Amino acid sequence: MKTFLISLGVICTIFLGCHTENEPETARQPHVKADNPVEAGRYLVTVGMCNDCHTEGYMAVEGNIPEDDWLTGSKVGWRGPWGTTYPVNLRLRAQELTEEQWVEQLRTRKVKPPMPWMNVNKMNEQDARAIYAYLRAMGPKGERMPIALAPNQEPTTPYLNMVPLNLPPMAEGGASN
Ligand code: HEC
Q1: How many whole angstroms from its chain centre is CA 125?
Q2: CB-ligand 1 contact for 97 (6 Å cutoff)
Q3: Which residue has the least CA distance to atom 12 on ligand 1?
Q4: Strands 159-161 vs 77-80: parallel, antiparallel or unpaired
């Protein structure tokens, strides 16, 4: 009788997808729900706010930028105590890197502000792969962005002035790594 019930449980789980008490915990854990990795990547770059910086003008027009232009970088610099940085063209970057290099970069690289590397480094591997799949599916577009300038270099491009004013020392940020 016991064997019969166990077999019934196995058949139910394997063939019918029934939920049983033995269902592994991981099956119930939250994860990105999408039809395929490209769609998951599209979702992740949107809610992960990558467009806010890596798509020029995105925030100013409340995200109303044709998807075809997404993540092509921004020539508007972010100038602060770290110098002036430019959000790289991710559509080109994904062409230059293998999937493994991309995952490695996203999960380990510490770059200058305002790139939120401390958050992006925590992205799980599958999500990093999904973003790569999305960028590759979108294909290369645009040009390379200017290289970062040192604090004493005057930008010739438009830039946002991120100089901290009147902030307590801890909030000044501007880690000059
Ligand atoms: C607040 C603005 C901002 C947001 C949000 C942002 N980035 Fe960036 N990102 C930057 C800037 C600026 C740089 C260039 C940093 C530098 O020159 O050191 C950069 C650099 C990068 C690089 C290049 C790293 C390297 O090793 O050269 C990658 C890859 C990247 N971002 C991916 C992403 C992804 C993926 C997201 C969304 C999950 C994202 N970024 C969100 C501003 C941002």
Answers
A1: 11
A2: no
A3: 87
A4: parallel
Q: Give the chain's largest Cα–Cα span.
A: 81
**Assessment of whether the complete model's pTM goes beyond 0.90:** no
With a 6 Å cutoff on the Cβ, whether 113 touches ligand 1 is no
Ligand 1 site, residue 75, Cβ cutoff 6 A: no
Measured from the CB, is residue 117 less than 6 Å from ligand 1? no
Q: How far apart are CA 22 and CA 145, in angstroms?
A: 52
Encoded tokens for 15 = 């063939």
115-133 pLDDT tens trace: 999 999 999 999 999 999 9
With CA atoms as reference, report the closest residue to 129 among 103, 108, 91.
Answer: 103
pLDDT per residue as tens digits for the range 71-119: 999 999 999 999 999 999 999 999 999 999 999 999 999 999 999 999 9
